[in-house]
Request: fold
Amino acid sequence: MNIQPLHTRLAFMLFLQFFTLGAWLVTTGTYLLETQSFTGNQVGLVYAGTAIGAIISPFISGLIADRYLSLEKFLALLHLSSAVVMFFLASVTTFTWFYPLVIAYLVLHMPTMGLSTAMCFHHISNPKQIFPRIRAWGTLGWVLAGLLIGFLAIEKLATPLYISAFSSIVLGLYSLTLPHTPPSEEARQKSITQLLGLEAFGLLKKPSFAILMLALTLICIPSAFYYSFVNPFMNEIGIHNSAGKMTIGQLSEIFFMLTLPFFLQKWRLRYIIFTGLLAWGIRYLLFGYGQLEGQNWMIYAGLLLHGIAFNFTALTSQIYVDQIAPAHLRSTAQGFVSFVTLGFGAFFGSWFAGQVVDYHTLGLNQHNWLLIWQYPAWIGIGTAFIFLVLFRKKLEGKT
Reply:
């Protein structure tokens, strides 16, 4: 098989993967707050469902995908099943029904995030060189989803949920056309402890790794505020086509994803991660004061910081973990990072964000956003300086 067409097929898989998620994730906060009149706490719990999915994901991937089913068939099964759940989710209007259905959807969908990446790494020869270019198409899928939702002006409707469901069907059927990827014999011979990644807990004995995990967990709080409440905030203060304009953040993400190798060559690792953590905090100060008359440019500057915030923390941390972990634990260590951050960190962050928004609710669909944004701002800034002071691990002569 010609390698270049294979890269295209994998890129289209990631494009559909992130289009499916981006079609509903960013704007559902607006739909639930303004149309369904959910409370901030309820919206926070809905977004915390991604964490529950991330916590369960290693069990599903390790116990099923790695041992019994070929990867392409398992991806198809998960996507088609999640499409069915999403159709039901789009039709319910009460938290009593919405919450268990969104948990069911995310338990099915979240494993596909790691499994689609595993599909890419299994079939490309030089992941460090090739994967960033393939992964960028995933971000483009997210951007297109946001532009489509904003152009159609359907942020306050259930329509994005239906779009996501149809996209899941397409992706499920497309998965069946992907290269055959059977379970490995090595995975079948591993113990349950090895498959679930429990060995990675031993890495916490390394002070630098433990400090990084602490910083990434704390920064999940500002991250949760972004995905749950920035879109409702922009709609509430009257910014037109906010879903489309939020794609500024993803375009910035692509730029810094492609230029990250340059920064890794020129800057010390701890300063790159520090800058990313600091960006998470500063952007919320920009959001808070950008709502003042004539200062909306600050909001767009805050959106642009998404590329630095995401790439300089998440991607750089993945590179660091890959270098510090023993060879036989590298994949397990990466899964452990996702387990801690996308799991426990995201759950607490989403719950906390919901509590803060509820506490500063002024009335029906009105909030004191200036005070709300102070919480993630100072948590992000504080986390950055705690990391800078405590993180001293030397890596290739740089700290």
Observations:
- The CA atoms of residues 289 and 295 lie 7 Å apart.
- The longest helix spans residues 207-236.
- The first strand starts at residue 361 and ends at 363.
- The domain at 198-399 is CATH 1.20.1250.20 (Growth Hormone; Chain: A;).
